[in-house]
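Dear colleagues,

As part of the handover before I leave the project, I'm documenting each prediction I ran so the next person doesn't have to rerun anything. This entry is a single chain, and its sequence is reproduced below.
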Amino acid sequence: MIKQPVLRYIFAEQKHSATDVIQRKNIIKQLFIISAFVCILLTGCSEERKTVPITVGKDVYHIEIAVTREEQTEGLMHRKELKPDTGMIFVYKEDRKLSFWMKNTLVPLSIAFIAKDGTIKEIHHMKPESLTPVKSTHSVRYALELPQGSYEKSETGIGDIIVLPSEITNYFD
């Protein structure tokens, strides 16, 4: 026969146990939120940037726009893959000579340096994680990064014109 004080202790333990379960669930939720936040900060699996369609030669690419210093500094870093029809355009307020490197960029890219009127002035191929600067020899307004080999695949080269959407050409107006 179980005495009443023992029963109270058992039931009290069950209530305490339920509280522990709730606290553990809350801790798990908090850890999940923290890990998601860390993922966003460290791996670039964050919010998606605005994209615009840009026709390069015979193909259409979905291009992210990098305008702010932070966006341009991050670029395509930390991405383990890049879909074949995607890329990033770096937009500048005025023409200038540009320099890019591939620090923490894990996928091979081709970069076109593009004049204000959309004319491709130069195309360079860049190796993943290379710290060697890739510099434009012309003053240009834009740099368009695509998966390596995309310009050749799209049958586009130096002197060709890329028609840029107004979201890009009028960005600083």
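The longest strand covers residues 86-96. The chain has two domains: 1-47, 51-169.

All the best with the project,
I.
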